[in-house]
Design goal:
GO molecular function, one term: DNA-binding transcription factor activity
InterPro entries: DNA-bd_HTH_TetR-type_CS (IPR023772), Homeodomain-like_sf (IPR009057), HTH-type_TetR-like_transc_reg (IPR050109), HTH_TetR (IPR001647), Tet_transcr_reg_TetR-rel_C_sf (IPR036271)
Strand content: under 5%
Order of helices and strands: HHHHHHHHHH
Helix content: 55-70%
Largest sheet: none
Shape: elongated
Pfam family, one: TetR_N
CATH architecture of the largest domain: Orthogonal Bundle
Organism: Rothia terrae
Radius of gyration: 22 Å
Keywords: DNA-binding, Transcription, Transcription regulation
Length: about 230
Amino acid sequence: MTKASPRKTSQEKPLRKDAASNRVLIVEAAKRVFSEHGFSATLHDVAKEAGVGVGTVYRRFANKQELMQEIYEEQIEELLGILHTALAFENSWECLVHYLENATRIQVRDRGMAQIISGQDMSSEVFASSKNRIAPLVNQVIERGIQDGVVRADAQGTDLIFIQVGLINIARLVGSNRAEHKPDTSELYRRYLWLALESLRKHRPTDLPLPVPALTTEETHLIFSHHD
């Protein structure tokens, strides 16, 4: 004889709704906290931003990595969306400009997003996953420009990653200045973005060779996944 399933009381439904509501509240708070402070922020920081106890956060997410994974997928999809939009441009130079401008912009805005690119505070599995999904499309962006003769022949997809890392650090450096009468530097990184773009452009039949070769995708991944 099978036992009847215990009846669900009417009090359980509001609890489930509260749990779902708390989960959304925590994830949205985590996005804001990680955007401003990066993934070095703690679950206590997230709980404070969400206006809930840290125990509530731990009931929804076993650890910070689990919460980061929830946000990570959305961030990767945003980057992939930028890449797919860029690759839809018929003009390969516009494709490159769209990708580099928009990918850099969202990383300047969101420290958590920037850490996906650089691999900071990310597990090796998560970082490898992002590399496998993003790198082939980044390579397509640069290869189209080379094939169309608008990008120098020795440029590589990994060059675009290092350019973004440099631009993000410029934005962080000038943004951290707390001088009372400092100039508005929120868009200063874009000056160097365009200087970087001009350095990628093919200007003459034979561009001067670069002093050292680019790293491969695997070498770049190895560096970012093993730095302090």
